[in-house]
């Protein structure tokens, strides 16, 4: 049974450094008819659980620990029994949102996760946050980039725990080295490809300075 990607958009608030903004978040569900994995459980656990349905949820993967990407994770984990996985370097951001709970496991660079018989590779891509990760699915020709890479450029680096030179290094070394036809499924907004974004790296560097 072939694996596929499904998409849910949830709306809520992003809060950091004393500011609050309304945002639409992409939630990605990877799997088949029997098993699934969720990338970024945002805002509405009920909507995500409804999309997962009766499938076994093997993991809730957090691309980073800003509140709008993790605020529904504990409720979804409680409903499904799925472990919450986050890179260790974002544990402080996690505690700012969920001081009374902890992730069930910590991700590291090049760790392999398996869902529906398919391998997903963790790529540590700091910059937007210290523990930001992307999740590469070679069999699907897809990378889930969270807020590291969008259609049109890198994720924001103007707030706490972020750094522009670091995100550029991450994109250059970990993402733009993927095959050009790799689909980029982002944390917000439109889908793109590695090939569509790669030619613009130098423009981003000039713009970022």
What does this protein look like?
Helix 1 crosses helix 3. The chain is of the alpha/beta class. The strands form 3 sheets. It has a 6-stranded mixed beta sheet with strand order 1-2-3-4-5-6. A 6-stranded mixed beta sheet has the order 7-8-9-10-13-14. The protein contains 7 helices and 14 strands. The chain is globular, with a radius of gyration of 16 Å. The longest helix is centred in the last third of the chain and has 12 residues.
- Radius of gyration over all CA atoms, rounded: 16 Å
Which blocks of ≥5 consecutive residues have pLDDT under 50?
Answer: none
Helix tally equals 7
End-to-end separation in angstroms reads 47 Å
Sequence of secondary-structure elements: EEEHEHHEHEEEEEEEHEEHH
Protein structure class: alpha/beta
Main beta sheet: 6 strands, mixed
Gross morphology is: globular
Strand content: 35-45%
Number of strand segments:
14
Q: Whole-number average pLDDT? A: 97
Helix content: 10-25%
Q: What topology, given as strand order, has the largest sheet?
A: 1-2-3-4-5-6
What are the salient characteristics of this protein?
209 residues; alpha/beta; 6-stranded mixed sheet; 7 helices; globular
């Amino acid at each position: 049974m072939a694996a596929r990607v499904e998409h849910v958009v949830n709306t809520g608030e992003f809060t950091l450094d004393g500011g609050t903004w309304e945002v639409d978040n992409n939630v990605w569900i990877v799997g088949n008819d029997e098993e699934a994995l969720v990338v970024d459980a945002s805002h509405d656990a009920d909507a995500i659980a409804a999309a997962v349905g009766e499938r076994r949820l093997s993991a809730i993967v957090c691309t980073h620990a800003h509140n709008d990407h993790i605020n529904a994770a504990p409720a979804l984990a409680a409903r499904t029994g799925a472990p919450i996985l986050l890179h260790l370097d974002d544990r402080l951001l996690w505690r700012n949102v969920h001081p009374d709970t902890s992730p069930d496991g910590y991700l590291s660079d090049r760790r392999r996760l398996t869902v529906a018989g398919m391998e997903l590779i963790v790529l540590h891509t700091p910059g937007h946050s210290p523990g930001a990760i992307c999740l590469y699915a070679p069999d699907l020709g897809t990378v889930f980039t969270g807020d590291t890479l969008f259609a049109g450029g890198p994720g924001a680096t103007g707030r706490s725990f972020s750094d522009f030179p670091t995100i550029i290094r991450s994109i250059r070394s970990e993402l733009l080295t993927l095959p050009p036809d790799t689909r980029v499924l982002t944390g917000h907004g439109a889908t793109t490809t590695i090939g569509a974004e790669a030619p613009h790296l130098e423009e981003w560097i000039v713009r970022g300075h």
